[in-house]
Design a protein that fits this description.
6-stranded parallel sheet, 13 helices, about 25% strand, globular, disordered C terminus
Length: about 450
């Protein structure tokens, strides 16, 4: 597949890294020659320096025979025009645009981005993706990471193990025997900074970060087994009233179970804008770093603090201060993935990486086969891939124990019809089944081969 990626920033670079590693023909376009050089020197991609929406630049990038264009520059308008040029002049089949400004995405103007107007097949809104990720973190407060799969019937949980975890030093094989009815499996372990797919004989240790794939009905039981208590979030304090904070507050207001939410926003016009668009949420104008303002917002009685300003360091410091003031849970939005190792020492319960959520969203729309969902873990270290098994797939008709999965791949669950099953060695994978796989990044190409990669199913 020939793909043009416009924008060589962190999102564009990560997408290029994924696609080039899977032997796609990738060309990166950016105005910044240094970013293009970084991409071409570190990845197996071609590079073009120039303005992404200019037809001659796209021509030089190979738009005449491109299968897809991904417009992920820093400008919404450039991204939209790029897709239109790709459609009108080069007839590129698949066009994906990252659009940040919420005005373009309001329901009133929702038909703006269609082939009759702006020729965009898929719109990626980082703010909405991040807001959804924040809501998922709030829904599973004992986890540091979480994602929903299989139409809400299954869930990935990231759990930090502490010394009071009752199953420490227990081989995973024995866990399956002890809790035979638990529809959950440990698919990944991060130990001393290294992420890997565990084997049946591996044990769990204090300070391990584990990824558990579980049936949604068994989430609370799985958390309890790994030493976590579940608690309903009734009071939420949001630091930052921009697009993300506003989207989270709106979603909380729309929930049937009443959640009391407050927002602290430093920029007065932004605070006023948020207040005008919310009904029950209290919006305070002030600095979230100010302990007096935090106490005015009753941070000591909040079940969770969500720090989603546009500054990583502010979010980290607010999260730390909130915990010190008595809040039981803190979640920070962090753009820089190198700051992730600081979360545990700072006692921050969970973090959200906007780039990772955006990359996951884009990957979900560009995978081959009948891929229904992709979630990128860590700094693009691994993925959880949800896909429908095709009749032509090498795994169709085989038993789980007989399928030659790479060492870095584990089956998280199999869905037959609307029933989610825990993977066992004698479970047969039939055509039409939906399978969820944890895969280290280097093993993703082999996973796509097993899922029968074919342009016919693109």
């Amino acid at each position: 597949m020939k793909v043009i990626i416009c924008g060589a920033g962190q999102v564009g670079w990560q997408i290029a890294r994924h696609l080039s590693g899977e032997r796609n023909d990738v060309t990166v376009v950016d105005m910044n020659a240094d970013l293009v050089r970084r991409a071409t020197e570190t990845l197996d991609v071609q590079g073009v320096v120039g303005f992404a929406s200019h037809p001659d630049v796209l021509e030089k990038a190979g738009a005449r025979d491109a299968d897809m264009i991904i417009a992920a520059t820093h400008s919404d308008e450039v991204n939209m025009v790029t897709c239109q040029v790709a459609h009108s002049i080069f007839n590129i089949t698949r066009k994906i645009a990252r659009i940040r400004a919420q005005n373009y995405l309001e329901t009133l103007y929702s038909d703006l981005t269609n082939n009759d107007r702006l020729a965009i097949d898929v719109v990626i809104s980082p703010e909405r993706e991040v807001a959804e990720a924040a809501l998922q973190r709030l829904a599973a407060p004992a986890t540091f990471d979480t994602e929903i799969f299989m139409g809400g019937r299954a869930q990935l949980l990231g759990i930090q193990l502490t010394e009071d975890c009752p199953v420490l030093n227990t081989p995973l094989r024995q866990l399956n025997e002890l809790f035979s009815t638990l529809r959950a499996i440990v698919v990944g372990i991060r130990r001393e900074g290294r992420l890997f797919a565990p084997e049946a004989g591996d044990q769990l240790y204090t300070d391990d970060q584990i990824y558990v794939f579980t049936h949604s009905e068994d989430v609370n039981r799985a958390l309890e087994i790994f030493g976590k208590k579940t608690k309903k979030q009734e009071r939420v304090l949001i630091i930052g009233g921009g697009n993300v904070g506003l989207a989270v507050a709106r979603a909380l207001e729309a929930r049937t179970d009443r959640v009391r939410a407050k927002i602290i926003e430093k920029h007065r016009p932004t605070a006023e804008y948020a207040a005008d668009r919310l009904e029950r949420t209290i919006v305070l104008h002030g600095d979230g770093m100010d302990i007096d303002k935090l106490m005015e917002a009753s941070v000591d009685r909040a079940d969770a603090v969500l720090a989603v300003t546009d500054d990583d360091k502010t979010n980290l410091l607010v999260a730390v201060r909130a915990k010190q003031a008595g809040c039981s849970m803190s979640i920070a939005l962090v753009n820089d993935p190198t700051l992730a190792p600081l979360m545990a020492p700072l006692d921050i319960d969970a973090y959200i990486n906007p780039r990772a959520t955006t990359v996951s969203s884009i990957l979900r729309h560009i995978r081959h086969g009948r891929v229904r969902g992709v979630y990128s873990i860590g700094d693009a270290e691994a993925e959880v891939i949800e896909a429908q098994v095709l009749s032509t797939s090498p795994i169709a008709g085989g038993l789980v124990r007989d399928i030659q999965f790479p060492e870095g791949v584990l089956v998280g669950a199999v869905m037959k019809g609307d029933k989610v099953l825990k993977p066992t060695g004698d479970l047969r994978i039939d055509p039409g089944d939906v399978i969820a796989l944890f895969a280290m990044t280097k093993d993703v190409p082999e996973v796509e081969r097993l899922l029968q990669v074919s342009i016919d199913f693109f």
